[in-house]
Structures are given as structure tokens and as C-alpha cells.
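User: Here's a structure from my thesis project, written as C-alpha cells. My advisor, Dr. K., wants to see whether a designed sequence matches the one we expressed. Can you design one independently, without my sequence as a hint?
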């Protein structure tokens, strides 16, 4: 039997035969594996191993040191984060309000909507109504007439 097979039996918790036990007495590596397995495996009637008070104190001191080394979060950073979140919510609310009111705005009246009804008794001369293009043409003609030769 070789070292690998014996070490596999030891780590699996199997009992060793006489040949394997004889090998443990001569091989330092297998004896070391057997000792580690013996220490890690509780024996019958034994509970789990209990650490000493000194070890417990050293572990707790090391943990306190690690926690003390962690960066502490400042209160003002938390307050600033809350303010940023509140500002984002205000901007979001205003944006939703603007979009919502744009969709509910009544349509702008056109030129035909402004004209009085026939039932109102007012007479409208349709020849006086002009379009924007006609107004621009009149504006150009008026500018040319005023400037005359200067232009």
C-alpha cells in the first residue's frame, strides 16, 4: 500500500489494517496526516474542542482592531445623499407636471375661431381678411416705397 492510499483512508475516517498501521510508524508524512486527522476528529465521548480564553481574547482584539481600521461614514455624507435624492424627486415631479399640463392645454384658437358668428349681428367684410404671406408682401412693398432710391 502506498502513501496516497493510506492518506485517503485517514482523511475519509476509515480504520487502518495492520500493514497500514506499520507504515504509519515508519513514514513521517503519513504519521503527520494521521495526527492532524486525529486532532480534527472528536473522539468518542468528547465534544467539540473549546478554544482557550487567551486565544478567544486575541481573536476578539484582532477583530476590534480590524473594525476600528474601517473608514467611518460621516453623518454629513448621509444627509447630502438624502438631499440629492430629494432634489432628484423634485426635478422628476416638475418634469412630469410640465408634460402632463402640456397634454391638457386647450388648442390655440385660429383666425376662423375669432370671427363673430352670423347670429351675433356683426357683418364681416371677407376682403379685409389677409394671410401672413400677404402681410409680408405688403411690408416689403411699404419698405421699398419708403426707402425708394436709397435701397
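Assistant: Designed independently from the structure alone:
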Amino acid at each position: 500500500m502506498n502513501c496516497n492510499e493510506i492518506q485517503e483512508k485517514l482523511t475519509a475516517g476509515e480504520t487502518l489494517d495492520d500493514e497500514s498501521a506499520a507504515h504509519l510508524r515508519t513514514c513521517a508524512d503519513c504519521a503527520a496526516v494521521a495526527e492532524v486527522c486525529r486532532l480534527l476528529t472528536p473522539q468518542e465521548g468528547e465534544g467539540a474542542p473549546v478554544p482557550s480564553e487567551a486565544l478567544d481574547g486575541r481573536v476578539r482584539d484582532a477583530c476590534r482592531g480590524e473594525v476600528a481600521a474601517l473608514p467611518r461614514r460621516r453623518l454629513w455624507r448621509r444627509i447630502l445623499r438624502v438631499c440629492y435624492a430629494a432634489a432628484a424627486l423634485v426635478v422628476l415631479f416638475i418634469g412630469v407636471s410640465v408634460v402632463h399640463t402640456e397634454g391638457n392645454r386647450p388648442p390655440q384658437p385660429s383666425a376662423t375661431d375669432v370671427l363673430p358668428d352670423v347670429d351675433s349681428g356683426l357683418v364681416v367684410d371677407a376682403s379685409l381678411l389677409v394671410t401672413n404671406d400677404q402681410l409680408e408682401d405688403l411690408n416689403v412693398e411699404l419698405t421699398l416705397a419708403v426707402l425708394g432710391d436709397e435701397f
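When you compare it with your expressed construct, this may help: The first helix runs from residue 3 to 12.
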